[in-house]
Each structure stands twice: as C-alpha cells, then as structure tokens.
Amino acid sequence: MKFTASQIAEILEGDIEGNPNVEVYKLSKIEEGSEGSITFLANPKYTSFIYSTKASITIVNESFEAEEKLSTTLIKVKDAYNAFSKLLEYYNQVKLNKSGIEEPSYISKSSKYGENLYFGAFSYMGENVKVGDNVKIYPNAYLGDNVVIGDNVIIFAGAKIYSETIIGNDCVIHGGAIVGADGFGYTPDREGVYSKVPQIGNVIIEDRVDIGAGTTIDRATLGSTIIRKGVKLDNQIQVAHNVEIGENTVIAAQTGIAGSVKIGKSCVIGGQVGMAGHIIIGNGVKVQAQSGIGRNVKDGEMLYGSPAIGYSAYNKSYVHFRNLPKIVDRITQLEKKSSDNG
Questions:
Q1: pTM (two decimals)
Q2: Which CATH architecture has domain 3-95?
Q3: Which of 174, 241, 278, 320 is labelled catalytic?
Q4: Domain 100-314: which topology?
Q5: Which is an annotated GO molecular function term of this record (predicted)?
Q6: Is 320 a catalytic residue?
C-alpha cells in the first residue's frame, strides 16, 4: 500500500517541504533509505545522513533547517521520534486490518462473537466461548471451552488459549504463546512415584497486556493466575501456577517465575531472572538480568546476582572478587615474610 507525502502529513499534522505527491510504501533507517521509503531524523548525530539518504520522505523536527541541498521531501513535526512512532502504529493497523472468517476453521454453535471478527484458517473456537468486538485471531490459533475475550484483542498465529481463560480488552498475544496449560503440580508417594495434582484453576489477563511469542502462563491449581493491567511480557517467559503480576510491570525474555510468586506494580525485571516459589516482590522493584531471587523483596529495591543482593552492594563486592587472585598473592607473601621473620 502506497501513501503520499500529503496523506502522511495529514496523519501526523505536519508541514511539507518538497514534493507533496511523492509516494512511499516502506519504512527504513535514515542511513539505509531507498527510493519509495520513509524515514525520520530525531537524533542530531544522524544529521549528516539526511543529505545522502535516498529515502523519498524524511520526518524531521520543525526546528530543522537544511544546510545543504536535499533530495528527500521533508515532513516537519513537533517531535519527529513520536511522529514516526505514531506512523508505525498506523502502518501496523493497516497491515493487520483483516476481517472475516476464513475456511477451514471451526466455531462451535454455543460460542458468541462480536462485530468485525477476523478468524484465521485452521483456528478453533470451543464451546461457550465469548469474544468481543474488533478481535483478530490469526491462523492455527486455539480457544478452549469457556474462554472469554474482550474487545480489540489480537491473538497471533499458533497461540493456544486453554479452557476457562479470561482475557481483557486491548491485549496482544503473540504466536506460540500458551495460556492456561497445567501448572507443574505433582506429589510423590512413599516409594517416590509422582502423581499429578489436578490443576482446576484458570488464568485471568486484564486489559492492555502484551504477551510475547513462546511465553507460557500456567493455570492455577485452585483460584487464578493473574496478570494485571498494563503488564508487558517478553518472549519465552515461564509464569507458573497461581502467580500474580502487578500492574504495569515489564519482564524480559527467558525469565522463570515459580509457583505462587506475587510481583508488585511497576517492576522492571531483566532477562533470564529466576524466582523461587511463594515469595513476594514489592512495588517498583528493579532486577538485573540473570539474577536469582529466593527471598521476599521490599518496595523499590534494585537487585543483582545469584542469589541476588542489593545492586550497589553487588558492584562493591564484585570489585573485590575481581581482585581476589591479587589479594591471595598478597596474603601468601605476607604469610611467607611472617614465617621467615619468625
């Protein structure tokens, strides 16, 4: 799909300098721009590229004044970075603007769905499912029995939503994610043989939650595993049974959260973090990548290491750890001198 500079300027409420009829159909970095692409200049260190870029259109701040001749058409806006982000969002909406029910697919007669549904080929909608308006479910997705989905939700190809799961409004679930699979619940007998503990709870995902590709969220043993409003989960995260993640918390890839952990609001958790079961993480906590958390954490703490300690304390300790061979040599020499003097 092609757009003219005039159309884009109208979307961004910007002013054009150059050819208002020039057309673009793709996005690019300013240093990699080519004919038919649109780019932006927000960081001053990239200014030199605007004089050599082959992009047909460049979005710039309204304060920008060219010092050399330009071959690219400019669209001047208050904030070039925010404007380009807005354009990306608009482009994504256009690209994903699908509707209708493709064949072959299956929707049970007991299920109900709202207006403007897109239901991709080879997808499955089980018994008593309720789906809101403007929902897009891409091919090979699975919705188990009694699933409830709000408005403006996108479920990408291959995602699996197990029975009884409840999903709020404006959520995005990426391909390969699995929501509502059984928690890891087993109990051994006297001979050490493990038997499965039935997992009869569900998963509740509130509004504006994003779930990355390949992430798994287990159903509760009893009650609910709960992902609160505004949470953003990266790819390949494991959220175990009965976990609760507080509003607006963000978690990076490959983090593993054991059963019954409670995470507070507005936390930032790095990649490959491991959390032991049944602990409580306070509000506003920051955890550096690859940390191991095995204790309760107070509001506002910043942690690093495994087992994790305060970030500042870790950095001070690391200085000594890095110099440990030198320290050992000094102690050895002191012991030798002491022995010689004795």
A1: 0.82
A2: 3-Layer(aba) Sandwich (3.40)
A3: 241
A4: UDP N-Acetylglucosamine Acyltransferase; domain 1 (2.160.10)
A5: N-acyltransferase activity
A6: no
